[in-house]
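re: ur question from yesterday

yeah so i grabbed the chain u mentioned. its 353 aa long if i counted rite. heres the sequnce exactly as i have it in my notes:
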Amino acid sequence: MKRRTFIVIIAGVLASVVGGYLVLHQEKQEAPKIAVQAERPIPVSIVAVAAATVSDTLNLVGEIQAIREADIVAEVEGQVRRIAVEPGERKEKGALLVALDDEVAAARKKKAELHYRQAARTAERYSALYRDGAVSLSAYEAMELQREEAQAELVSATKHMQNAAIRAPFGGVVTSRLVSEGELVRVGTKVAHMADFSRTKVVLYAPERTLPLFVLGKSVLVSSNLFPDKRFSGKVSAISDRAERAHNYRIEVLLNNESRSIPFRSGMFARVLVPSEGERQALVVPRRALVNGMRNPAIFVVRNGRAWFTPIIAGMEMPREFEVLGGLVAGDSVIVSGQQELRDKARVEVVHR
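ran it thru and got these structure tokens back, copy pasting raw so excuse formatting
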């Protein structure tokens, strides 16, 4: 019995040893396969970095705005008695837009006029008495003070009555009317909106690296997809000294439209073309080679069968290419297809050049 038990134990030990050996042997055979699969090259397409002739002409999109725009608001409270304007009408400076009920304002002005007349007569009488020594200086000064207070009340009442007639603050087009006849408006209520299109401007935001191309007074061309056959001349009228969050600077381009020949309207998109001073040679790379976009530009460069993640310094942007100012040299092979699956130093196989 003891001998049989001993034999069974020995057999179990041998079986464990053989099983462990087989498992280790199998793992050693599979490990190279896994390594081979992990190192399988990724197919990519490349192009060689080369110098090309470029022009510094800049093409940016901006928004058309009137030279002046304003919300017209009521400065006094009252009921709308008359509407003297409709959207789309042009009004000269000082033209009536909306008339409010002015009966109370007129009564207040009349009362202020009477008070001022009385105060003025009293002040004149005290002035004569003071010259004759009949009244003291303090009494005379008190009457003069009352006259000045009455005059201030008259000025306030007159202004209040004038404000009942809401007029155009400048010459322009009424773009919207926001009240109706019979409506009660309060101080600060918007009654209309006006825009002055005698001159229009294009507001655009230029990247930091393009700022040297913008100079105050520089002539530029303006176009629109709505009018593809027309070009309009403009001048750079304002350059912001402070960048926006994305390191873009606000630029304003002024267009003279006194003859009403420019068909732009506020809110339209326009394209601004900033001409260059000539042509030059520069390294260019296709835009599809970018990995992180233009804010933090980087690309993959193929060297010795591997993809190397390479940050670069980007220059001028073009429709399909962009200028490289640093990080690459002529002849470098950059990946333009297949980089979505790449990591730094990954093995690659070039399938198209």
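noticed a couple things. Residues 75 and 236 are 36 Å apart (CA to CA). also The radius of gyration is 41 Å.
anyway ttyl
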